[in-house]
Every structure is written in C-alpha cells, then in structure tokens.
Give the backbone structure.
Amino acid sequence: MAKLFAPITLGDLTLSNRIVIAPMCQYSAQEGCMTDWHAMHIGQLAQSGAGAFTIEATAVSPEGRITYADVGLWNDATEAAMDKVLQSVRRWSDMPIVIQLGHAGRKASCKKPWDGGRQIAPDAANGWQTVSASDIPFDADDNAPTALDIEGLVRLRDAFAQAAMRAARLGIDAIQLHGAHGYLLHQFLSPLSNQRTDKYGGSLENRMRFPLEVFDAVRAAFPAEKPVTMRISGTDWVEGGWDVEQSVAFSKELEARGVAAMHISSGGLHMDQKIPVSPNYQVPLARAVKAAVNVPVIAVGLITEPEQAEAIVATGDADMIALARTVLYDPRWPWHAAAALGAQVKAAPQYLRCQPHRLKDLFSA
C-alpha cells in the first residue's frame, strides 16, 4: 500500500489517509460570518477524498481578522453561521473537519488580496487599530500596531479559549492554532517582531511564553480526546530571526503540553525574507522537527505530484502532507494521486460511476 494512503491517528481521531487540505482564506465572510460561498467551497473539497479538511484562518476576535471579509468565531452570530455551513457539508460527507484558530496581529486590517491587500488605516472604512507583541509595523508604510499590555494578553488568551469552546459545540474534530506566517503568535516568537522587555520578550523562553499560554488555554477548553495541533513557520528566512533550531525547541515544549501534531510552513513575518521557493522547499524544516519530536509532523509547500507526496511520507521526512493551492486547482487531487499510486480512496456513492474503466478498485464508498 502507498504510505500516503495509510491511515494515521491523532489523539482519538483517525484519518483515512495522510493528505490534509490546508486552511485557505476565502475573504468572503460578512462581519465574520460564513456565507454560501463557504458552503460551496468546503462542500466541494469535502468530496475530494482527502483525510481531513481545515477551515481557513478563523479570527478569535474582530480585530484579529486579516481582512474585514475574514471568517471569525467570536460570538453567537459567527458560530451560528458556521453551524449552518457545517450542517450542510456533513449531510453529504463524513470527512473530519479541522478549524484553524488565529489572530493576525499587526498584519490585520487589510484589503482583500484582489483589491491590493494593503493595510487599511484605523480611521478609514473597514479599518481598525492593530495590536502586536511590540509597536513595530510589518511594513514601514503601515500604521504601527499597539503593543499588547498584560490585560490585552489575558483577553486574547481567553478569546482563543472561548473560540475553542465554540468549536467544540460545533462538533469540530480538531483545532489547529495558527503560529505561522507572521501573524500574532508568530510575532511573539520572532525576535524581529518581539522586542518586549517584560517576561514575554527577550529570551527564547520568554518569546515562547504567550503562544504556549494560548496553547494551554485552548487545550484545556477543547475536549481532551480531540486533537489540538499547531502550525508554525520553521524559519523567517531572515538573518537574526526565528529559525529551525528555535522551531525544534518550541515543538518540544508543545509536545510536552500535549500537542497532537506539528504543521511546518515558513516565512511571512518580515519584508526582507528571501525564500528559496522550489518543490519541497519547506520539507527540510519538517524533517528537522520530526527528528526531534514523537508527534506526527505535516509538511506543506509546493507539493504538487503524487510521487512527490508519497516520497515525503515514505522516506519519513514527514508523516502527512498538506495541500492548498494545489487542491484549489485540482479539487480531486487525492483521487488522481490514488490512481497514480495504485491506492484506494473514498468517493461519495453519487460519484462511483465515474471510476475509470481501467481502475476497478480505485473507489470505496
């Protein structure tokens, strides 16, 4: 059997294969509430044959949204809207649903990408004052964020926990905390964005403190049998920034606290990043973390070919692979990968008749 299509267990959750659909922002919410677009988007990918689907970065507070059109989970209205979408999807798919909880920090208050993506000033329509570990803007032209005080840190930690409780009520199967791509938790981790002089800044131990407090709060708020995972940037790709050695140390701390899996991406924190983009460019970061911890590790980034994905898990570089743009381009990628690797994949009974003639055992109902 292809290793890519072997089951894997996280906590008490067993995935049918090692393919995870990564969170992908759709910028199509209204006041944080999911819309019909999300029902269509999640619905089609819930028929893809992947092992799990991850809901896009979901803000735990209104000011935590990347754009004004981001999904949130901070009040009854956002919870009800998500419940409506999930009920629709679950009528036709039993694929496990993961939610990525996050806060954009200083990278919040932005236009939609197709409108340029630039930050919106706090006093302009659809804009607000951002917050961060320190008052250092992401871009020199951005409005400077407000450095969070202790009261603000407690408020945000509790917001993460409350969102986790809402996710539990919604029957979400797992939570992924967003500690990557230059968003708030990553802003605390990196010395480039965190220049605090209190117990939340300076040493690696101090810079890890708030993200670990958030993890502990979420872990305590979510059912113990359900997994909580974390996505991190393995490196900032900037000298003097967050790097793979610190990622390993952070992953070890998370493992000790009960993290169910680590998802290793990279970059997004600093304008001076130099990313060597090429197939598998982030896999060495996942490999380094996997060598140091005993929890499953997920690799992501320019994984486009079935044989490429199989090699990553078969050689032990990672335990799972995540797909984002690849599966948007080809929503049946897991089907095609199973066909290429001689494996079997689940398909809805409504689709069984499309099984190719030469692949008699490709689909399972």
